Amino acid sequence: MIQSTRAIAFIVIQITVLVILLTVQLPLRLLLASDPPRPPVKDNPDSEPAGTRSSCGTNELTTSLPFTPLLPGTTSNFSAKTVSQHPTFWFYIPYQNQDIQSGNFSLYNLDQKKTIYRTDFKLPEIPGFVSITLPQDNIPLNINTRYRWTIILNCSSPNPQTSEGGFVTHKGIIERVALSPDLEKQLQTANLSERLDLYIKNNLWYDATADLVEIRRFSTDWLNLLKALKLQELEQQPISGSVLLLEN
After folding, report:
1. Cα separation, 138 vs 115, whole angstroms
2. H or E element, residue 129
3. Where residue 100 sits, what CATH number does that domain have?
4. How many structural domains comprise the chain?
5. What is the pTM of this model?
6. Domain-located, residue 18
7. Residue 53 CB-half CA count within 13 A
8. Residue 222 contacts residue 66 (beta carbons within 8 Å)
9. TM segments (predicted)?
10. pLDDT tens-digit profile of 48-97?
């Protein structure tokens, strides 16, 4: 009699455990069924040039605008073309040179998967529009080839919010294209305003900003360029000139 009672009790315990397990697992299975696994995110940094911004000193200009390339678009899409073998890259940098310990600029061939240019630099003394030019003795850009450029500014002092060393960076795409005979003919007879308009219409933004110092001398052309870039708030900011290259 005692053994029979124990057997019945054991069966009851097993049934109770089974019911509990089913009660727990069923909602979990329903939850998993309603939220299937997401496909892995493809790592393709070349498709979306981007920029990041952190605190780098306290001397930003009164425009309160961030460090930005002189290209149309947003921080997720800085991409344009050029006809130049050795183009010039222009950036608006609102930092004092003492706030930036050093900078680095590199150019990467997306087809050949290799870096064709890299340099370290210091900023000019005055914040403003700053340029970096691919040297004439460097490998030229190939026609119908896309390159990814990267610029990094390393902060001199720690971020006051995190007490860690900060940096600011931007990435973008430049593609060299062939100059068509028709466009070449138009450029040969064009004045500054007409040349600027032709470059913009053909998405040759790196060429449009190449003669920035000359364009700045003419207020109408200068403002038209900044409006096309949606950067007209920078109209009064100075041109600082080229970065100061450091020996690698």
Report:
1. 12
2. strand 128-133
3. 2.60.40.1930
4. 1
5. 0.75
6. no
7. 13
8. no
9. 7-28
10. 344 444 456 555 434 477 789 999 876 556 899 999 999 999 999 999 88
In a domain? residue 152 = yes
Structure tokens given for 88: 């010039």
Torsion of CA 92, 93, 94, 99, to 10 degrees: 180
77 in a structural domain: yes
CA 149 remoteness from chain centre:
9
Write out pLDDT tens, residues 120-158: 999 999 999 999 999 999 999 999 999 999 999 998 866
Q: Which domain holds residue 130?
A: 53-246
Look at residue 209 and tell me if it is in a domain. Answer: yes
Query: In this predicted structure, what is the pLDDT of residue 156?
Result: 83
What mean pLDDT, rounded, does the chain reach?
80
Q: Which of 143, 202, 197, 133 is nearest to 175 (CA)?
A: 143
Residues 6+ apart with CB under 8 A from 10: none
